[in-house]
Structure to design on (108 residues):
């Protein structure tokens, strides 16, 4: 059994939620890159906050994590978010941090 004795994840997700008011998403989707997904708790809470603000926009979410166990835990955390926001695509990877440039949007 894992016991979380601090509120760090809650505080971080609430702080990120405050920043959502400052962004102005452009079609085709809201893009999110999480470079340290961990167990997915913060990401799940941020996605919940995003859904409250951008209910009708699709989401492209990329998460990077070293640990395959953390990726597994993240996948266990996200089903509720898919149910809440079905127009969401999530890609989880264990690429090294120097490689995320491949996710940049191509110029058309």
């Amino acid at each position: 059994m894992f016991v979380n004795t601090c509120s760090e994840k809650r505080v971080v997700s609430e702080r990120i939620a405050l920043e959502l008011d400052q962004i102005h998403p452009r079609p085709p989707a809201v893009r999110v890159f999480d470079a340290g997904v961990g167990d997915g708790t913060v990401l799940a809470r941020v996605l919940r906050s995003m859904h409250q603000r951008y209910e009708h926009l699709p989401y492209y979410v990329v998460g990077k994590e070293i640990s395959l166990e953390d990726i597994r835990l993240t996948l266990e955390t996200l089903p509720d978010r898919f149910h809440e926001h079905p127009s969401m695509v999530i890609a989880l990877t264990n690429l090294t941090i120097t490689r995320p440039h491949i996710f940049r949007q191509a110029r058309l």
